[in-house]
Design a protein that fits this description.
By secondary structure, the chain is mainly alpha-helical. It has a single domain (4-136), classed as Sufe protein. Chain: A (Alpha-Beta Complex). The protein has helices spanning 4-14, 18-30, 78-91, 96-101, 118-137, and strands at 46-47, 56-61, 67-72. Helix 2 packs across helix 3 (78-91). The longest helix has 20 residues, at 118-137. The relative contact order is 0.22.
Length: 142
């Protein structure tokens, strides 16, 4: 099951023509929130090695059992930044259960597989897998 905010993004992409989806992805890349000061030197961030470009993330779970995501992706990697922007908007504040139940290939319904190379898609899958692993490590699995 996909959390409602992410489902809305998935539906918007899925209903858009192919040429518009790439522009939407670029819009999400420009909208990726900046890192908070505590992560600016990348201390506390974890690199996702499967990504072609240097990509870092941090996952936090607050006292209310809500997940917060932080991403660092270079501007010269707009598709990866766009995917991170989608995750940031669609999963921010979700519960650990919602994160863990998000299908690993939700981007297929969005039509991103038509726009992005298989290698980049594997990197995207690795980002979500790393987020899920961190949620479990932080005790958000039950």
């Amino acid at each position: 099951m996909i959390p409602a905010p992410l489902q809305e993004i998935v539906d918007d992409f899925g209903a858009s023509p192919r040429e518009m989806r790439l522009q939407m992805l670029l819009d999400y890349s420009r909208g990726l929130p900046e890192l908070p000061e505590r992560y600016r030197d990348r201390a506390g961030l974890e690199q996702v090695q499967e990504c072609q470009t240097p990509f870092f993330l941090a996952v936090e779970i607050d006292d209310g059992q809500r997940v917060h995501l932080f991403f660092d992706a270079p501007p010269e990697a707009p598709t990866t930044r766009g995917y991170a922007g989608i995750l940031a908007e669609g999963l921010e504040g979700a519960t650990p259960t919602e994160i863990l139940e998000t299908p690993p290939d939700f981007y297929v319904t969005m039509g991103l597989a038509e726009l992005i190379s298989p290698l980049r898609l594997r990197g995207m899958g690795a980002i979500l897998a790393r987020i899920k692993r961190r949620v479990v490590e932080l005790g958000g699995a039950g």
